[in-house]
Amino acid sequence: MTAREKPLFALAEQLDSLQLADAKQEALTAYLQETVDTLEAQRNSTKPSPDALLPEEETEPSSTEDESATDEEHVFLDWITKRSMQVSKKPLERLPCANVKAEEDWRCDKEGKMACTACKLVSYCSKECQREHWRHHKQDCKDPIRFLDWKPAWIRGSRTPIFTSNSAARAITEEQRQFGLGLQIWGTIPAMDTLNLANNEGVSASQSNLALAYVASGDLKNVLRTVNELPSDFSGELTVLVNDHDPIVALRNVLLLMILGNIENINQAADIALHLWASTFIQTQHTLIYSRASLEFKQALQKDDLFSIKIGNNSTVSGMVSEVTKDILPHYTHYDMPFEEASTELDRVRFEPTRVDRHHRIYCRLEPSHRLSFLEYRRFGIVFPFGAPHSMSAPNKFLFSPDGQWLQDDMASPLESWNVEDVIAGGKAHGAQSADLYGCLYFYLSDQLRTFARRLRKFKISFKVLTEDVRDLSKNLTTGLYESIGLPKDTVFDRIDVSDMIDAEFVGIPNILEDWAPFLNKANQYSAILGHSTSWVPKQHNSQPGDADIKLLTPLLIKMDRIGGQNNSHPDLMPAWFKYYVALYDNSSAFEEYLKKQGTDEAMSKAGVKRRSKHTVIPQRIGARVGDPANALPYFPTDDAWYWNVHVGQALLSERFVEFGLA
Asked: Mean of the pLDDT values across residues 427-438?
């Protein structure tokens, strides 16, 4: 008897008879995965053979039969979703007590209010729970990476670090390069509000229709931050074009929108979306929800590769997918990647011996518990409070290629996508300690995703998802190719975020302005093209501090107590300190030269735009404030701000932004 034929009440009785949560999860997962696979197989079997010679009217089912089957499937898939969520771990609202007995499937269900005084990575409800759990916690608390005298591998080995230009070990073999595919899913620039209405259109825009374009979007972080920063009384219609040439990135974005908009329980929807977005492993029960969303997306695809899906009460996501996207979609409608296979691949990439110095360059700038927090995420890749039980054992297939390779590089972390100070504040609001970086990230992202999910239901937002090359996208818009998804040829945007496409190795400023300036909303004086450069430094002379600059800045860093202290006085730590010098170095003149070399002035003249000398949407340099002059340094006014942004944050601090407005 197949899963489709098996009576549902029998499964319900089976689940109710099982006492252990893990047993319930295993039974439900096995049944539902078989069901999803069966539905997919049945659907494929109804497709006519290419060699079929029957007349068209004999091969097409009646609309009544088709609609009946679809309705039946949706009812059943709704049941799958509800059952999966019933047996899944509930989202955390507060930091839990860390007293867990995994061997007995037991945990204390009280809130953790008393932090371990040594590491502050875990908290307990009482001294009794802390004493009871010490035999488990001490291996973390006393991990060698937390030792005060910890040193990076290049110092312990008395050698030059591999990442320096004069290191003989820098010549990496072709075989050693094959770790990670280098796809930037999370990116390296913290999320930003790309509208910034308060500095531009003002509160009156809360009743206006607005249109945004993210032409090389990567993930949805800028979309999320921008929507979440809209006035709470926003009543206009918001159109959001989200384009990314990579089919896996685009598919992830669609599924995240579907999950956040269509799962009734907002808190659970946010939790499911959070781990799809940021965790390498997920709850087994959630895999069925991802499979269901993938299957619904596949069902929504029409013959002309168009789709339209309602999300929330007022919003929609529609678009046009590429053949490559359709080809990979079946891979994501079911979960068959073994835990051991994913874990082995993650270890292979993140613990590649030739990359250890790069990780240790970060660690030696961190406080002891932050080193362990980074290492814990490197080991397991789960965004969750340190030490809290999570039951996440299913690989997140959306972070692996169809053939099982890790999509990003070994250094990738979702923490880079967000302002670290905001993350820590968000975690503390739920009882987390600042030592627990990824626990804080869990609570911060939960709040952000819940807000976003509520706004998907409240606001009228129309998402347009495409998978085009950036230049092809503008040409196709001009011809009206996307009229069927609500983007006519006369479409204009109030903000166009081109990401790092301004760099010459991608599209370059002249081509960006030629292609996208015509799409600026000329009726809105605040409309703008936004971009950033992360790779301009190695191409431009004086883009970073040289020997003379380092000599001048060293006394200042010592006076500020940034270097020369007891824990960072070793001379071989100099390679790790370089970022401190970058933070105090004015690179604005060098960036002007870089822009001139690209022919920016001529390109602006041809396109009818101007570069804003005073930014009103995003800062001119990472870490600076919106409205600061071009030569403003990153603004870290307190010791804490310096530590979170320079030590913990992984931005290079040389990244710069541009804004182009109407001439």
From this structure: 98
